[in-house]
Amino acid sequence: MDRPIAIVASEGEAAQAALADLRLRYRTVIPEEADVIVALGGDGFMLETLHRYIDRHVPIFGMHRGSVGFLMNSYGPHGLIERLAQADSVRLHPLATIVTNADGATIQALALNEVALLRQTRQMAKIRISIDGIVRLEELMCDGVMVATPAGSTAYNLSAHGPIIPLGSGVLALTPISAFRPRRWRGAILRQNAVVRFDILEPIKRPVSAGADSVEFRDVRSVEVRETQEIALTLLFDHEHNLQERVLKEQFEG
Predict the structure, then answer these.
(1) DSSP H stretches of helix in 42-175
(2) How confident is the model at residue 167 (pLDDT cuts 50, 70, 90)?
(3) Whose CA is closest to 175, among 166, 164, 167?
(4) Is the N-terminal amide bond of 203 cis, ω within 30° of 0?
(5) CA 1 to CA 150: how far, in whole Å?
(6) Global pTM?
């Protein structure tokens, strides 16, 4: 493999040290000229890198030099070119999000893991949930609620007791966060082409924020979420530790 590669790193000490080492070992170019981007850090930095270079349409190979590394490969300075040549690829489609704020303005964002709504104060949020234009929950009283992709189902979604979704299953997870009413509602599995709309009830008394991965919007009035097939991002994984295998293993770990 002689395709030009770029190496980027988070600000962490371990990531910066790895960056310096790899740049001595391999010929690199700037990300704007690369055919492959190597990202050093944790999952948060991987998401940042995917968002930053979303318009470049190049595969990204992560190596774990941060805190959480579910989306990353193990770090190793040797044989990087061979690893890239033999890596398995996974295509991810982000969630397209349209947020309407208190001023009536609409803002668009993309999320690879999840779109999450959260209460901003001590008051529980009240949220109406519609799927494909049909109201399915007239009023959910909760700390929040999220839509998660299969790749993101092992992140915040799993912490909120949502289901782990296999890659390629063609579904999304709709997961409540500390639901109070309906108390027994545990969420739903939706088709990947479902359009989910959240309307905030009593927004002045019970303000709600919305987060699309690491981007946050305050005092939202409504949020619409759908998976976009028009955009695809490619992640590379070592064959023996590919993402599909990791998602499967998560379902059997305590």
Answers:
(1) 43-52, 80-86, 156-159
(2) confident
(3) 164
(4) no
(5) 30
(6) 0.86
| Model confidence pLDDT, tens digit, residues 79-99 | 999 999 999 998 999 999 999
What is d(CA 118, CA 5) in angstroms, rounded to the nearest whole number? 39
Taking residue 36's Cβ as centre, other Cβ atoms within 10 Å add up to: 22
Q: For this structure, is 43 an active site residue?
A: yes
Per-residue pLDDT tens for 212-244? 998 999 999 999 999 999 999 999 999 887 777
Residue type, 116: A
Complete domains list, the chain, with CATH: 5-92+232-250 (3.40.50.10330), 95-227 (2.60.200.30)
**Catalytic member of 2, 21, 35, 43:** 43
Closest CA relative to residue 224, chosen from 137, 115, 123, 122: 115
